[in-house]
């Protein structure tokens, strides 16, 4: 594919972007490699590389020594400078914030998490987020000047312009001035996005959905939320509502937005209260009536029939939710993600068996390998996309 342009006024910028894009995706390259990848002339490639070296985005390597004497001028080797700065990826939840620091090729350098104080004010929540970022940067051995962009995921609707949509569930809890107040002194570009949409970005970038252009990523721990990618493009809808799966309380056999972990906990607690014989009681221990989702899954894995019936109910319910996505949006793949993903693998056989009965376009269903870091990982991808699109207007840190 020809990555160059012919319009004179954009030619230089387009050529710089084309060469930088190829180098970002590769190891060390020669001028000849770049000519083949971009279709540019040798003189243009060398001029562009020299420009990128001056800007700090590219470094020149010593040519490898081959056996015997070298004939002619040795080839020049160039490499993308992934240490020219870093990006932050944040998952800001109701109880906890998690921060990832990544280099410019997306390699995770450090991680930090902090819990919010109970009933914390907006100012206190901003302070916790800032401390978590400072801790992660310090662990990576970097300072604030190294940050070229920060991506943030929040558990409420965000429009395509990065603004929290007012009047939605939890919008007041996350409309904290994250883009304008937290790191105002640093001047970082701060990008806000819905957490489920970032989960979709993460899956397509480095999860089970790598290379899939039509997918849905479903965060299904406490509450079901979905991010959609169609033809490789993240969908937002007119007001950030794409992927909200409609009013699940109106769907027969579903009835609410409750997710896998919440249902396992509630139905497991109800099972204990009923006096039924189940290994869940042994796992919970004496004097406790509240069941965690972990105990339900553990009991089911050990062959407990009552716990297995709970998981069967959850799986059939999830199949109905997924069938809505399949019928309306026809994704190739639906990924169940978040902290519940590892346990959710036990639900897949029932979901796969149910879907053909519920929809004429059943998707493949998988669980995410990214665990609890899925949203923060998507936030890293969001920040990297910003840096890649605006590299020539940014100043590398070193």
Automatic annotation (TrEMBL):
InterPro entries: ATPase_NBD, ROK, WH-like_DNA-bd_sf, WH_DNA-bd_sf. Pfam families: ROK. It comes from the Bacteria. Gene3D superfamilies: 3.30.420.40, Winged helix-like DNA-binding domain superfamily/Winged helix DNA-binding domain (1.10.10.10). Belongs to the ROK (NagC/XylR) family. This is ROK family protein. It comes from Arthrobacter hankyongi.
């Amino acid at each position: 594919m020809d990555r160059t342009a012919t319009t004179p006024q954009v030619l230089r910028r387009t050529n710089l972007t084309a060469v930088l894009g190829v180098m970002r995706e590769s190891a060390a390259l020669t001028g000849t490699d770049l000519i083949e990848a971009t279709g540019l002339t040798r003189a243009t490639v060398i001029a562009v590389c020299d420009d990128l070296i001056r800007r700090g985005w590219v470094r020149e390597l010593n040519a490898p020594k081959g056996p015997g004497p070298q004939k002619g001028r040795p080839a020049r080797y160039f490499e993308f400078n992934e240490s020219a700065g870093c990006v932050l990826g944040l998952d800001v939840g109701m109880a906890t914030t998690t921060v990832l620091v990544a280099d410019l090729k997306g390699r995770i350098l450090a991680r930090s998490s902090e819990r919010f104080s109970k009933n914390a004010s907006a100012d206190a929540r901003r302070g916790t987020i800032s401390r978590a970022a400072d801790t992660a940067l310090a662990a990576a051995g970097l300072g604030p000047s190294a940050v070229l962009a920060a991506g943030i995921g929040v558990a409420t609707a965000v429009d395509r312009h990065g603004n929290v949509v007012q009047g939605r569930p939890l919008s007041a809890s996350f409309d904290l001035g994250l883009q304008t107040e937290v790191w105002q002194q640093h001047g970082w570009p701060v990008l806000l996005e819905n957490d489920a949409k970032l989960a979709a970005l993460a899956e397509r970038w480095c999860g089970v959905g790598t290379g899939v252009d039509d997918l849905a990523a479903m965060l299904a721990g406490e509450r079901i939320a979905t991010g959609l990618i169609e033809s490789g493009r993240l969908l937002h809808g007119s007001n950030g509502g794409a992927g909200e799966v409609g009013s699940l309380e109106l769907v027969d056999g579903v009835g609410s937005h409750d997710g896998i972990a919440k249902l396992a906990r509630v139905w497991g607690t109800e099972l204990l209260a009923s006096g039924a014989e189940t290994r869940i009681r042994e796992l919970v221990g004496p004097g406790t009536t509240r069941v965690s989702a972990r105990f339900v899954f553990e009991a089911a894995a050990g062959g407990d029939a009552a716990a297995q019936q709970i998981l069967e109910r959850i799986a059939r319910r999830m199949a109905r939710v997924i069938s809505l996505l399949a019928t309306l949006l026809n994704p190739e793949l639906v990924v169940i993600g978040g902290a519940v993903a590892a346990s959710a693998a036990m639900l897949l056989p029932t979901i796969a068996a149910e879907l053909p009965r519920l929809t004429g376009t059943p998707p493949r269903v998988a669980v995410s390998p990214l665990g609890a870091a899925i949203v923060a990982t998507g936030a890293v991808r969001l920040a990297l996309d910003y840096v890649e699109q605006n590299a020539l207007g940014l100043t590398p840190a070193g």
